[in-house]
Amino acid sequence: MDLTVVAYVIYLLVSVALTVWVARTLSHNGRIFLADVLHGNEKLADAVNHLLVVGFYLVNLGFVALYLNQDDEIADARGVFEALSTKLGVVLLVLGAMHLGNVYVLNKIRRRGIMEREQVPPVPPQGWVAPTVGA
To answer: How do residues 110-119 score in pLDDT, each as one tens digit?
Structure first.
């Protein structure tokens, strides 16, 4: 079997496995963070979490598929390792960038929610006073 095909198969298996593992880890651990961002609305947190996971899969698996192409033919085992290390390194960087992007956006949403909560007076108004004219 051609070593380029072997590298393709290993790359796809490892990349897909890494993408699934990262998505499940982020989904499981991010649910608590989303519930906090969304003020305890569990159903909305689950829905947003699911949508984020689907988007994560689409972007990352699409990138893995596009990045599959190998320009040079691989001649030996060393070439297989070099090609795989480059491709998997880029995939890991993309996965990390996607994760940081998600956390950044969610943190912005969370901060906005905290600021909105701080603007609400701690005690509701007790009454109304008519303005004085010509004081």
So the answer is: 787 777 767 7
